[in-house]
Amino acid sequence: MSGVIRTTTCTGWLLRAAAIAVIGVACVPAFAGGIILYEVGTADVGLAAAGYGARAQDASTVLTNPAGMSRLDGTQVLAAGQLLWGDVRYSIGGGTSPALGGNNGGYPVGQDGWFLGGGGFTTYRVTPDLTLGFAATGNFGMPLNYDENWVGRYYVQEATLLGLSFLPSIAYKVNDKLSVGVALNAMYGLYKNQVAINNVLPSYGDGQLKMDDEVWGFGANVGVLYQPDARTRWGLVWNSQVNLDFNAALEWSNLAPGLRTLLDSRGLLSASLGVGIKVPQGVMLSVYSETTDRWALLGSVGWQQWSKFGQVQFGLDNVNDPTGVVKNLEYKDTWHVSAGAQYRLSEPWLVNFGIAYDSKFQTGSISPLLPANNAWRFGAGAQQQLERNRFWGFAAEYAYGGGLDVNLKSDLPVAAGGRGDLVGAYNQAGSVFLAAYYNWKF
User: What is the pLDDT of residue 324?
Assistant: First the structure.
């Protein structure tokens, strides 16, 4: 660890506000394989991401497959909004250390489980073969805010990891069947971690440790769209890894005098900490196929490299011998599979529905820092063509994560300066996504 000098600018505060406003919705945990989400308020919510990189029916393709922009005429703008309810309540188990109390943390996601936000997408046809696009949205991260005195306070009180992506994009139509596209992923990352520190002496209460930083990271999304005939298209997308290298001074408060002296002697009071987060690379193969004039079938298969994620556990394991403030957590790569359909109910109305499964990215005990793992998704929605150049739609999805078991054991009891044993589960974890969007063509 090394010292750090930081400055705050007006631009930084504006970016921070924009990140919170735009990516709030997208970055609520969906209990998926990892915390890169498919839900950003678009029609993909109702399809459970089926056909994610092959649908290319509106301007949201800037995010899902930039090559799909070649299918869109003129200038198109899509505004998307989303409301989420996250049911992520922790249930205290019998193995939890009694000295930690009986507060289960409440609803840690957003504001008492609710979160609101949205994103925007636009495409512009320059020539019959060349299309430009841009998007501002967020599909990476998770904001958590537990009650400060909850039973897991020595593991986490507040944890915010969000990424806002700005995506300038370009697509080129090679021929009538093949298009290629690429988007620069300029990601503005926000990181905040806050944890209680065991002062041992009850008269002092708990101390606190915080870290707060914002950084930029850069990557690319590369896509191919292949249309063998008028009714079928395949999409293949690769999203590169994005490195978010957070580094900030550690902020300590309300420490007992003896602990403060010990931390100072170890050089921890004046230290800064580097936390390298790697937004995983991923690959998605998707298909869209019109089987009749009314029915279309969609599907996707994907992979994400969560084994290089790098998120760490924050805090002190032993206040009597504080040698460091982080512990590495282990993750594994994930797989995604989804299937869905579109049905033309009438000339103006199109109905969407889909189902998906994402595999686990945590093994063994779940960390309360990331209460997410494998998940089933069930989505449905509808879209109405208002006139030739305008349509709107709405969608809903339920993501079910089941039971997420927590079994964290401390080397020392709470009374001796340890974190204590945290044993329990997030029972029947799930979240509801409600989305609405509007698309203009000029």
Answer: 83
Instruction: Please state, in angstroms and rounded to a whole number, the distance separating the CA atoms of residues 297 and 342.
Output: 7
Tally Cβ neighbours within 10 Å of residue 160: 17
Q: Is 292 exposed, middle or buried (0-12, 13-18, 19+ CB in 10 A)?
A: exposed
Q: Is the model's pTM score more than 0.85?
A: yes
Q: Which residues of 338-370 are buried (b: 16+ CB within 10 A; e: fewer)?
A: bbbbbeeeeeeebbbbbbbbbbbbbeeebbbbb
pLDDT at 11: 46
CA dihedral over 411, 414, 419, 420, signed as positive or negative: positive
Q: What is the DSSP string of 184-245?
A: EEEEEEEEEEEEEE--SSGGG--EEEEEEEEEEEEEEEEEEEEEEETTEEEEEEEE--EEEE
Closest to 282 (Cα-Cα) out of 236, 240, 234: 240
- Please compute Rg for the chain using Cα positions: 23
Could you give the domains of the chain? 10-441 (2.40.160.60)
Q: Are 169 and 62 in contact (CB under 8 A)?
A: yes
Residue 424: φ, ψ to 5°? 170, -150
pLDDT under 70: residue ranges of the chain: 1-34
Torsion of CA 107, 112, 115, 116, to 10 degrees: 170
**Is the Cα torsion angle 165, 169, 173, 174 positive or negative in sign?**
negative
- Count the residues in the chain: 442
The DSSP bridge pattern shows strands 158-166 and 169-173 to be unpaired
Given the DSSP bridges, would you call strands 158-166 and 130-145 parallel, antiparallel or unpaired? Answer: antiparallel
Interstrand relation of 114-125 and 158-166 (parallel, antiparallel or unpaired): unpaired
- Tokens (6 digits) for 314: 């924050």
Q: What is the DSSP letter of 367?
A: P
What is the CA angle 56-61-66, rounded to 5?
A: 105
Rounded distance, CA 314 to CA 310, Å? Answer: 12
The residues with which 196 forms a beta bridge, in sequence order, are 208
Per-residue pLDDT at 327: 84
Q: In this structure, are strands 326-328 and 334-344 parallel, antiparallel, or unpaired?
A: unpaired
Which of 111, 50, 59 has its CA nearest to residue 80?
59
